[in-house]
């Protein structure tokens, strides 16, 4: 159980903060994306083996942390609260069969002027338990290294800090992750919302599978037709879809879905263009178009809820 925040836990907690030169949505993704979190997790020199991970309220993450000296530390995490991209609350313990040996963690993500501050607060059952992990395992220094490794990972992916190839937007949709994913994966529904406001679509080929081809024509309101050729590079249902678009305006699009504590879904849309000059030239079109795309997705999801197919 997570204790009341009204209780004074200052004698049995550890609080560590770090500020990143990166947007909050990028830092959040590094902590919650199963494909990323194992790449940086832990103090210096540690590696992580993930056995299972389900990032949703009530979900379990079971993993091993490998010390540089060869020692393996079994770990488990049970997610209690997920409020993208603001807060994570979870219970963290050692061996998965010893769930009485655990502590509570709250991670807050705050953004100001493009910089993100991560504040990680561990609350232990007793002062003795807190002192033991500090003295025996170097928990405070380990926590600082943990956030430093997160920063290094985020910096390696924060291409928008050095060029103009990456465009990101996000939207909270009041529907389950399964309902949102259905609007993306079902071709007849995707055709209704894909593209900026006023566009319609004709799908010629649609193979929603990793490596599958997606061929379509987008019809602009002024009558212009835009043929598109895409490949589904990755599909991790219902959490992520990666689309590769070749030809004119070549880019890679990642649509990431995260369930929220209130039963909704937080959607992150990340579009990375191959050519920085091309991205800069069309940025004034891409930025509002991506926002319109997510709005249309939300409208399609809502329509599916009120008029189920």
What structural category arises from helix and sheet content? Answer: alpha+beta
Q: How many separate helices?
A: 7
Total tally of structural domains: 2
How many beta-strand elements?
14
Low-confidence stretches: none
Distance between the termini: 40 Å
Largest sheet: 7 strands, antiparallel
User: Which fold name fills CATH's third level, the topology of the largest domain?
Assistant: Alpha-D-Glucose-1,6-Bisphosphate, Chain A, domain 4
**CATH homologous superfamily placement of the largest domain:** START domain
Provide the helix percentage.
25-40%
Give helix and strand order, one letter per element, not per position.
EHHEEEEEEHHEHHEEEEEEH
What is the topology, as strand order, of the major beta sheet? 1-7-6-5-4-3-2
The dominant shape is elongated
Strand percentage: 35-45%
Output mean pLDDT: 90
CATH architecture of the largest domain: 2-Layer Sandwich
Describe the overall structure.
- The chain has 309 residues and is of the alpha+beta class.
- It folds into 2 domains: 13-158, Alpha-D-Glucose-1,6-Bisphosphate, Chain A, domain 4 (2-Layer Sandwich), CATH 3.30.530; 163-306, START domain (Alpha-D-Glucose-1,6-Bisphosphate, Chain A, domain 4, 2-Layer Sandwich), CATH 3.30.530.
- The chain is built from 7 helices and 14 strands.
- It has helices at 24-32, 34-40, 127-137, 139-157, 177-185, 187-193, 276-306; strands at residues 13-20, 47-53, 60-66, 72-83, 87-93, 102-112, 115-123, 166-173, 200-206, 213-219, 225-236, 240-245, 251-259, 265-273.
- Strands 1-7-6-5-4-3-2 form a 7-stranded antiparallel beta sheet, covered by helices on one side.
- β2 (47-53) and β3 form a beta hairpin.
- α1 packs across α4 (139-157) and α6 packs across α7.
- The two termini are 40 Å apart.
- The relative contact order is 0.14.
- The model has no long low-confidence stretch (mean pLDDT 90).
